[in-house]
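Subject: Interface between my chains keeps coming out wrong

I've been trying for a while to get a sensible model of this assembly. When I model each chain on its own everything looks fine, but I need the whole thing in one frame so I can look at the contacts. Pasting all components below, labels as-is. Any help appreciated, I'm running out of ideas.
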Amino acid sequence: MNKFLLFAVSLILALPTLAQDSAQRHFDGNSWWEHVKFLADDKLEGRETGSEGLRQAEAYVVDQLRKAGLRPAGTDGYYQAVKFQSRQIIEKDSSATLIRNGKAEPLVLGDDTYFNTRVDLAPTVEAPLVFVGYGLSIPEKNYDDFAGLDLKGKVAVLLTGSPKEIPGALASHYQSSRQRWQALQKAGAIGMIGIPNPAAMDIPWSRISLNRAHPNMGLAGAQFDETAGEQLSLTFNPERAEKLFAGSGHTFAEIAELGKNRQPLPHFPLAASIKAVAKMEKTEVVSANVVAALPGSDPKLKNEYVALSAHVDHVGIGEAVDGDRIYNGAMDNASGASVLLDVAASLQRSKEKMKRSVLFVFVTGEEKGLLGSKYFTANPTVNLNSMIADINIDMFLPIIPLKVLTVYGLAESDLGERAREVALAQGIAVQPDPEPLRNSFIRSDQYNFILHGIPALAMGVGFDPESSEQKKIFKDWLTDRYHAPSDDVTQPVDLSAAAEYEEIIRGLMVEVADDEQRPQWKAESFFRRYGAGE
Ligand SMILES: [Zn+2]
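Reply #2:
Try treating it as a single job with all components included. I did that and got this:
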């Protein structure tokens, strides 16, 4: 049993009446499940950004918000339009080839590698390859994978992940596509080949590569292009990665073994070049964020907002798995959007008057790279500085009873302590991210709020890292259902875990909205640098 659970158990034993008395119940899980069932229904076709299915999902959200009496807070009623450029690779006109000793070794797209269309790829690239370890440059830790390497005009090959000495949040931040490309570009590289770390792969390669020809998107407008100048981006199958290393004096097996334990990695030129031809089809797509407000009661503080955010979009219709082509996204993230609807309705109904206003932000384009939230935080519908915190919900996974809550960003701001207090009052313990290698802190929409200086948290139903049984339930969920058609409403969920989770979210919103003190980044938090005036 880990120490967090021990703490929870002793607290429950010591304070049974407090835990029960303070747990005023506002949710039973049933209304939540009704919303999930609507949003994840086959007829919404997986809520792809820009699709009719997502439009219907958002119309439902707007209808619920209106019925509940929430105030529109978009630019066009509840809506805020967002424009995208959609990019799709035409594989039959594209190719990738290794050139070794003057000999061409064609790669099989899908099996060996695939093009990453989040990047606006150049039509052709030919360049030598250099292995750059984790490919990270982290000045605050004096860590630089590029020191002494000649990368000018070359393509960097890297293993995703980070060395042990780099704390989770920092490692996550520097692996974001923006930071990653900034470092590579500064080192002179023209592109990258990323090999997913086999020790931290959520889903197997066969499923990762399955939907590679599915359209990707970027926000329309050059100001949003974070990978400008990146000519090539490939993801390489770790099981086929030995071909990259052949003749280099190193093997991928050796690299993977080191990477598994977050050991330092060597850096060296590879014995091959890459030649790539990428044919892309580009179209314009329009979608929207949905924003609603619940006005606060304090004459002054009501001009400040606590944001509660969740993405409504998912990945739409894709390649069939077991005969099913609709990627319903019930947990990812109909589940989170439904919590927002429940909490909005509950707070509106309740007698308690909160001092600050609450902003409910349903974003689009999360699956395309956190794009709806990126647009919203760059073009907020309320004053940016008036948003004092963001609590984001994405795939909180009520698939086991809620005994421990995982809080992403727990140690970064005092929101962490507030979340801990609210959870403990319900007899639920809190733990930091037990799997920092998965980069969860930057993998959802809270990250865009953070980049604009707004303290933020994300939370999910946690498993006891010491319990192999619970660990397996989560691992299996990721392997089998994450971004698969089986993330649908026929899967088993724990309604009471969902209800308890909603209770914590509601409690935290009230707590933060009522506290005279604005949430603050911790002095030692890396993310403090994005705070206003710093
Ligand atoms: Zn997702």
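Reply #3:
Confirming on my end. Residues 1-22 have pLDDT under 50 and may be disordered.
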